Sequence to fold (154 residues):
Amino acid sequence: MRYLPACSGLLLLLATGAVSADYDRGAAAYAAGDYETAYRLLEPMAEAGHPEAQLRVGAMHEWGQGVAPSFNKAAQWYQRAAAQGHPEAQFTMGFMYGSGTGVTQDEVHAWAWFDLAARQGDQKAREFRDATGARLGAGKVAEAQRLSARLRAD
Fold:
């Protein structure tokens, strides 16, 4: 029985290594411009909750790389990565809400997503958050702050 925790840890370590290797192969295919292979490797990982894979799959949908372009699908993948705290995905969600790309335009949501990325040190997100806040005014910024707090809590 005392070997069970050690075996469980070893299995987890091996699985993590396999996931990392799969991601690396998918990222290499993406970098080489082999988008069909990249999508085939990354999409199952994205479905399983891997935030970097979700970000890449979102980008592939946004730019039509290996799949038909779809801003709606891109936003769905970015949202999943952003909800896990991925700062680049959070920034991208802010941009999508700010421009109405793939989602209904909503500057309160844009401010909240920019805020989450800014809190992780993303300077560009801080600039976009502040510019969005200047357009919103104090009442809407307060609403956006509450939304940001809810998103952080989730």
About this structure: The two ends are 37 Å apart (CA to CA). Residues 3-31 form the longest helix (29 residues).
